[in-house]
From TrEMBL:
This is Phosphoribosyl-AMP cyclohydrolase. Gene3D superfamilies: Phosphoribosyl-AMP cyclohydrolase. Zn(2+) binds at residues 89, 105, 112. Binds 1 Mg(2+) ion per subunit. HAMAP family: HisI (MF_01021).
Length: 142
């Protein structure tokens, strides 16, 4: 299954123009598995990241810690392929329906949302599927 791409720059610009970015030029993006509905992760994107995502079909975010574009999977091999990009009713949150290669979380879990209140405390409810050191060559990163 191939990724969804939008070749027309004017159409990509319409999506970006409808997006309400915060004071830092960022918008939250929630990545959801297109087939199961599982929420995989949340990250930030700027206009350039959204444009590249739509143009290439590979999901791109903006890394606040590196102050640079973050092409999901470029270091881990755990790519996200765009199926659909949706804007919420207020224009201030993006939903990326994706086909996830491997795991989405830098901890080696399928989803970043793996902690929940259980037995009076916060517990991991999903185990890592991949050792993060295998993904990144060290213990932590994205």
């Amino acid at each position: 299954m191939s990724s969804t791409t939008i070749a027309d720059p004017a159409l990509r610009a319409r999506f970006i123009a409808a997006t309400r970015f915060d004071a830092n030029g960022l918008v939250p993006v929630i990545a959801q598995a297109h087939d199961t509905g599982e929420v995989l992760m949340m990250a930030w994107a700027n206009a350039e990241a959204l444009d590249e995502t739509l143009a290439t079909g590979r999901v791109v975010y903006f890394s606040r810690s590196r102050n640079a574009l973050w092409r999901k999977g470029e270091t881990s091999g755990q790519f996200q392929h765009l199926v659909d990009l949706r804007l919420d009713c207020d224009g201030d949150t993006v939903l990326a329906l994706v086909r996830q290669d491997g795991v989405a979380c830098h901890t080696g879990r399928r989803s970043c949302f793996f902690r929940a209140l259980r037995d009076g405390g916060l517990a991991a409810i999903a185990a890592p599927e991949v050792d993060p050191a295998q993904l990144y060559g060290h213990a932590h990163g994205h």
